[in-house]
Design goal:
single chain, alpha/beta, about 10% strand
Length: about 200
């Protein structure tokens, strides 16, 4: 079951969400996800989430999903440089919690960027990518035991840039920030799974 255009508006559908003073679109949710997580689980979870979000908003949510919105001609380092702009356009953060999310340096940097730009944990929604509820415990354990030194990036240039940003922010701050999300992740993932 795929996601129809009536379920989610991607990036450019900002007519209902609004535009800010410089004419760039604002979005309801910036989506954090790992390209290495199972696509079927992502599609199913995002489709189910979009129905719930549409009910809350009274319209389909406008999301920034890199697979659909990021200029494919950008290099890995350019995508890193643009990330704060994309994250800053969102009212909320949607984190698709799959088995590889916290292994991906870019995903962790997106979450860190949210907080560095003044975002709040109250404006983050965590959605589990699981086939049964026992897998939620694994996701929660990944957050609880997170350490940035285990993260990798896809492109060497991107990894070098992201590692420098982690070092500047201090590895301990990255680790603490992610680990502090464990209670919210556990509560929201269970609630979403049982909804």
């Amino acid at each position: 079951s795929g996601i129809g255009v009536d379920a989610v508006q991607v990036g450019g559908g900002a007519a209902e969400a609004g535009r800010d003073g410089d004419g760039l679109p604002e979005v309801d949710y910036y989506v954090v996800h790992s390209w290495h997580d199972p696509p079927g689980l992502k599609t199913a979870a995002l489709g189910r989430w979009s129905i719930l979000a549409s009910t809350r908003l009274g319209r389909p949510p406008v999301v920034w999903l890199d697979a659909c919105c990021t200029d494919p001609s950008l290099s890995a380092t350019q995508r890193c440089a643009h990330m704060p702009v994309y994250v800053g356009r969102a009212r909320r953060l949607l984190v698709l919690c799959g088995p590889t999310l916290l292994q991906r340096l870019f995903c962790v940097a997106e979450i860190y960027c949210w907080f560095a730009m003044g975002g709040s944990v109250a404006d983050i929604e965590f959605v589990p990518l699981v086939s049964d509820d026992r897998e939620i415990d694994k996701i929660v354990a990944h957050f609880d035991a997170f350490n940035a030194i285990w993260c990798k990036a896809t492109a060497p240039q991107q990894e070098e840039l992201l590692v420098r940003s982690v070092e500047l922010a201090e590895v301990g701050r990255y680790n603490e920030l992610v680990r502090d999300l464990v209670d919210d992740v556990a509560r929201q993932c269970v609630a979403f799974y049982n909804a």
